[in-house]
Structure formats: C-alpha cells, structure tokens
Amino acid sequence: MRYWWVNQNQTYEAELNGGYIWSPKRNKNGVRNQFYENMREVSPGDLVFSFRRRKIPAVGVASSYCYEAPKPDEFGTAGQNWEKVGWRVDVAYTEMSEPITPKAHIDVIRPLLPGKYSPLQQNGDGLQSVYLAAISRELADLLQQLLEGAGNPRVDTDNISQLDRSDLVHEELERQIEDQIDQSIEIESTEKQQLVKSRRGQGLFRLNVQEYEKACRISGVCDTRFLIASHIKPWRSSTNVERLDGENGLFLSPNIDSLFDRGFISFDDNGNLLVSPVLDTQVMSQLGVPAVQSLNVGRFTSGQMKYLAHHRREVFLESGRQS
DNA sequence: GACGGCGCTAA
DNA sequence: TTAGCGCCGTC
User: Which residues form a coiled coil (predicted)?
Assistant: First the structure.
C-alpha cells in the first residue's frame, strides 16, 4: 500500500463532501505534470492526507483505482482553467476534529520529505504547484502519530469503504454521448444505430475488428462467441470514425477485456505486454494473465499502434511512462 | 499580510 | 524535466 499527500485548498470542500480527489490530466499548456500523473498509481486502501490552509483537516482511504471523469460541477470557478475531463479517485474521508499544522512540526517532518516532488517546502510552507504527492511510509507514520497525539481518531487502511463510482461515472458519461449522437442531425439513422452498438462491441465495429484480429492476444481463445470486441481508444474518447474503425479494436476474453478496458494492462508498439504496478500480481494470474517476465503478443498494424499510444497515454495506470 | 492545484523561464 | 521567482486573487 502507498501513502499520498493532496493539496486541496480551493477544492477541499467539494472533494470532501463528494468523497473523491480529482485532477486534470495535463497542465494548461498540455504538458505532463507528475502531480497529476500520480493519480494513476493510487490503489484502493491507500492513505491520503489532505492539506488545506496550512493544516491537515482530514485523512482519507482510497476506495477505487484512478478513472477518467468529468470535472466536477461543484468546483465552480475554482478550476476554471482545468480541462473538462480528468482523473478521479474515490476517497472515504475522516475529518480531523483537531487538525495539525505541519509547519509547527517541520523539524521532525523535514528529514522525511521526499527529495523530489515534495509536497512541502523545507520551511514547512506549501507549494503552489503541487497536487497529489507520494510520501514515504515513515512520513505517513509520523503524521498519524502527530494527529493521534493531538486527539484525533486513527484512520487505517482497513476502514476501507466499498464505494467505487467508476462504473456509474463512465455509464453516465457514455449515456450523454449516446444522447448527442441520437440528437445529431448530420448522422443518418443507420449509422447512429451502428455507433450505439459499437459501444458494446457489437454490429459493424465487431465485423471490422474481425478483419484484423482472429483471437484473444493473451488467452488465445479464437471462438468469437466468447470474445469481446474491445475498443483500444475508449468509445467515449473516440470520434465517430474511430468508434467504427476496425484497427481501433482487439478481440479479448472477458477477463482480459476488463483488465485492458480499465487500464491494468496495455501493450507497447512491439507487442510486449505492459502490466500496471497497481495491479496485484496474484489477481492478475488468477484472471488469466501469465505472470512471466515478458510476454509478446505479436505485431500490431500502424493503425493499431496509433490507438495503443493513446491507451498507454490516457488509460494505462502507470505514471511517468513516455510513449 | 500570507499564501497557493499558477505561469514563466532558466539551465 | 525541475525548481525558483514573481503575480495577484482569496482567505
């Protein structure tokens, strides 16, 4: 399990009440930001320390992995220059009745601050450019001691709640897109039907995928009755052309589709399997992904590679990967 | 007056 | 890529 520190000044109320943390995927100028990339490495059960107005007013336990979600409406003007779609992790917060001020304990905290991507300055002040920062177990232990010493209840990872809204959020997002397709006057009704069917991997999209893929790349199952035509670049993020493009698809066994769809696995351009560090290796092998050092699933077309690059950049749950 | 989920920019 | 510095709105 891992430990995180989140600087939430303007959005604290919204994120506390909503039970989540949210970030855009990129800086305003489109550049990768490590504090946003860190969202992709959170696992259920991880501990999250809230930081607001120089204090720690709440401690949370993550209850989901990272998933794509729209910018919360309740942010209002706070996040005006952030993108409309970003990363979200569900978090069960416990408010501290006696918030502590890290700066008051900076002498003991300073030696435990990370050398890079630290959430605090050496003098104990915050850092404007930080959102979600990784901290060590040692620092997390210290913060918990300080919080308990001040009279707060201890928050532990086994306070984990089962609340994971990722399916609901994605369902709502995709339902809105279906409505847009349905109301569009430029699209013919037969194409509308195909676009909606493609969301479930059915219809024309499935036929188009069959031109490129014959079996599940990992399980080897080739009876298409048991395979899901899975979008590489997610349906919700695709253009209408991409939603029906056969090169934007793989035939996958249901278990493998579920792992690929949620970003637990991906592929590089040479066909090597990539496994997210957030995924438990035992679960992975139980779900049918062989626990070998490297697995090559064969060549991809240049079209497939284009979509795979998107999958690695926007779906795969690993921070810091350049591709 | 203090400070930060910034925006630039230097190296 | 990372950290430092200056801006300025908000608490």
Answer: 163-190
Domain of residue A27: give its range: 3-164
Do the Cβ atoms of A176 and A85 come closer than 8 Å?
Answer: no
Domain ends where: A164, A182, A208? A164
Q: Please check whether strand B approaches the CB of A306 to within 7 Å.
A: no
A28 CB contact with strand C at below 7 Å: no
Return the closest-CA partner of residue A219 out of A259, A268, A246: A259
Q: Both tokens of residue A220?
A: 């080897």
DSSP state at residue A155: P
- Distance CA A12 to C1' C11 in A: 14
**Protein-contacted bases of chain C (C-beta within 7 A):** 1-6, 10-11
**How far is residue A181's CA from residue A44's CA, in Å, rounded to a whole number?**
35
A129 touches strand C (CB under 7 A): yes
Residues A153 and A216 grouped into a single domain:
no
Tell me: the pLDDT tens digits for A19-51?
999 999 988 888 889 999 999 999 999 999 999
H or E element that contains A100? strand A85-100
- Look up the protein residue whose alpha carbon has the minimum distance to the C1' of C9: A78
Nucleotides of B under 7 A from a protein CB: 3-8
pLDDT tens digit sequence for A86-126? 999 999 999 999 999 999 999 999 999 998 999 999 889 99
Cβ pair A249, A263 in contact under 8 A: no
